Amino acid sequence: MSSATPVAATLDDLSSVEGKAELINGRIVHLMPTGFRPGRVGARIFRSLDDHAEAIGQGVALPDNVGFAVPMLSSGRESFSPDAAYYLGPLPSNPMRFLPGPPTFAAEVRSENDYGDAAEAEMEAKRGDYFEAGTSVVWDVDPVNEVIRKYRRNSPHRAEIFIRGQQADAEPAVPGWSVPVGRVFA
Q1: Which element (helix H / strand E) includes 167?
Q2: pTM of whole model > 0.85?
Q3: Mean pLDDT by 10 residues, the chain (186 residues)
Q4: Beta carbons of 74 and 89 less than 8 angstroms apart
Q5: Superfamily covering domain 35-184
């Protein structure tokens, strides 16, 4: 009996996968589609970011399912696909490919299965990966409790919390941008 050593997947393999997925430890990890509310929340964040990026003529805002390729991190991760993002890095020479490097700002919107102790641990680990890759700010967006938690690279375990009636920002990653929390969760 022979045992074949599995071949690690690459970013090229990931780019040919249908649907949302990320490359972690040489494996393509498929991500479940999200529901209506998380999708709308992510879209509202993207729209606001996109309007801001166009108004200031700096950076690009990106919606769900856009891939960011990063050098392999200590966790084995080689890509991200946030629900909304802002990017200041160089654009790929082939615009059909993943962006080279991490997002400057990433918003992760919780889906219905993103609650509970195991989900919290996974989300914290993913934030750690973002920060190791160089992302400045990560939002943990909770549509059930209508809360946005902002984490910064220089204080990754301390969240700034935004609730209805407040403006959520992504300083210093996206200077001058903020969005009403009530609008995000409308």
Answers
A1: strand 167-169
A2: yes
A3: 69 82 84 87 98 97 95 96 96 94 98 94 96 98 98 96 98 97 97
A4: no
A5: tt1808, chain A (3.90.1570.10)
